[in-house]
Amino acid sequence: MAVLAESGSNPDVDLLYDINGLAKDAPHWFDRVMEFVGEYGLLLAMVLLVLWCWSTVRRRGGESAAPSVAALVWAPLAAGLAVLVNVPIRGFVERPRPFVDHRNLDVLVSGKTDYSFVSDHATITMALGVGLFVANRRFGIAGIGLALLEGFCRVYMGVHYPTDVIGGFALGTAVVLLLSPPATALLTPLMRAVERSARAGWIVRRRPAAGSSAVLPGARQPVESEERDLAA
């Protein structure tokens, strides 16, 4: 791939220098924080957000619990699939990391020797964010916000071009949305079956408290309850 101009003729490179230039003016401790957040912290935050959403869905229960949990299961599966799709894309494009072709960048993470397009971090976080949005709008908006912050961090750290991040956002979103109909069609019946299971039902909805007369969807009412209903 042709080497990009260092400045002036390419908006992608200009924006790279503008965002990465913030790292040069920031205190050393702030750069270390951004390094951790961009490399590990936001990925961990996304996982915790998915778990929080799952806990909320199973606590509320209702008829929408199984489809929502199915969407939450699909989110990390889609993220993993998107990363696999990215493997041949990187090999085909063969775009070097920004610091290979451009000088005077403040690179916060060393040891990056693989290709740059597209960003795995941006792909994973956006896939999780969009997957969360399918399951729950409120959590999804928060997840997409974290994904956008991840993209900014990757450019700030000097390890990706802005277009690497945009490509990752597009790839993660496309995999989640394009494959969501067949994925949810397969996963939703599975989650409904899990919901009816005596042992694994807690995965989809919180177990009722002892003595509660709550009945799982598709399950028969207790005989005593049926007799009371008939008597009434």
TrEMBL record:
The keyword Transmembrane helix belongs to this UniProt entry's keyword annotation: yes
Segments forming a coiled coil: none
Keywords assigned by UniProt, alphabetized: Cell membrane, Hydrolase, Membrane, Transmembrane, Transmembrane helix
Positions of the Phosphatidic acid phosphatase type 2/haloperoxidase domain: 69-180
Bilayer topology: Multi-pass membrane protein
Record InterPro entries: PAP2/HPO (IPR000326), PAP2/HPO_sf (IPR036938)
Keyword Zinc: no
Pfam family, one: PAP2
The protein's name: Phosphatase PAP2 family protein
UniProt organism field: Streptomyces lucensis JCM 4490
Source lineage: Bacteria, Bacillati, Actinomycetota, Actinomycetes, Kitasatosporales
